[in-house]
Amino acid sequence: MIKQHYDDGKKHIHVLSYGGGTQSTALLLMALKGEINGVIPDYIIFSDTGWEPQHVYNWVNKVNEHIKATFGREIIFTDNGNIRDDIVQGAETGDRFASIPFFTRDSKGEIGIARRQCTNEYKILPVNRKIRSLLGYKPRQRIKEVVHLWKGISTDEIQRVKPSRESWQVAEHPLVDVAFIDRSRCITYVEREGLGTPAKSSCIGCPFHDYNAWRDMKMKDPESWNDAVEIDRLIRKLPRFKNNAFLHKSGKPLEEVNFNEDQLDIDHFLNECEGMCGV
Questions:
Q1: Is residue 279 assigned to a domain?
Q2: Which of 40, 78, 179, 189 could connect to 130 by a Cys-Cys bridge, CB 3.0–4.6 Å?
Q3: In Å, how far are 12, 41, 184 from 2, measured between CA atoms?
Q4: Strand intervals (E) in 158-257
Q5: Of residues 152, 181, 183, the one with CA closest to residue 275
Q6: In this predicted model, what pLDDT tens digit does every residue of 204-222 receive, in sequence order?
Q7: Backbone angles phi, psi at 149, to 5 degrees
Q8: Residue 242 CB partners (closer than 8 Å, separation 6+)
Q9: What's the pLDDT score for residue 261?
Q10: Is residue 265 over pLDDT 80?
């Protein structure tokens, strides 16, 4: 629970894990304005996978400049390498890399999904490592403080609310437990702060992109689209997948998937009206 004072005799540290997207931006601004039970995070940490679209990096820099000018605070950046570079090296040399959830197709044509290791290795581990460093701990040293890690999960994503696996850490979900707002209200909140519509943060080649995300990328961000197509071709060289790894859930090469980009259906307009498309 996020409180200004605790009666357990322990030191409590509050860390906001900033993802660079819609919900975490709303949470960041609320937090620095004291709207999360009056508690201001001690640290704000962004873990960079190295494979976000350029508009996300532009957004993160914009937000960082805003909070420096308005609140005298800034984002702390960390990383655990570059996920794209690691995939390329793995395909070319066979070296191990943190698997992303590629879609696979077996001899019967059935679609499966590879193990997901990327979130842990490029997001969770770097943030935990940075927290240890900021608190002055070496690897494997026991952390004495109670660290409250704030995550930008909104009420429409409540299935993502989970406890921390770290004994020294408490997972906090202020948008659910304190603000009780959904994604659309997060967008409105950020827009009212004068920053514009927040970006939707995810890796360029994330297999969890939905139909609209892929189509928007193809239509509006050709640089990212071409990059995703290149990596989609490359992953079929990975020995363990035997030419059957794909970024798209159809189990087809990305460039062969029909996104009906030459026409706009009614769902596309509805999604745009709800502020859900490309943010």
A1: no
A2: 78
A3: 10, 10, 24
A4: 169-172, 245-246
A5: 183
A6: 999 999 999 999 999 999 9
A7: -100, 110
A8: none
A9: 64
A10: no
| Average pLDDT, rounded, for the chain | 91
User: CB under 8 Å to 206, separation ≥6 — which residues?
Assistant: 100, 247
CA gap 206, 196 in Å, rounded: 25
Mean pLDDT of 168-194: 97
CATH number reported for the structural domain that contains residue 164 in this entry: 3.40.50.620
Contact yes or no for 53/27 (Cβ under 8 A): no
pTM for the model stands at: 0.89
Tell whether 1 is covered by a domain. Answer: no
Contacts of 20 (CB under 8 A, 6+ apart): 46, 52, 56, 57, 59, 60, 63, 199, 201
Q: Which amino acid is at 8?
A: D
- Per the structure, the count of domains in the chain is 1
Q: Kindly list the strands in the beta sheet with 245-246, ordered across the sheet, starting from the edge strand earlier in the chain.
A: 111-113, 103-105, 245-246
User: Which pLDDT score is estimated for 238?
Assistant: 86
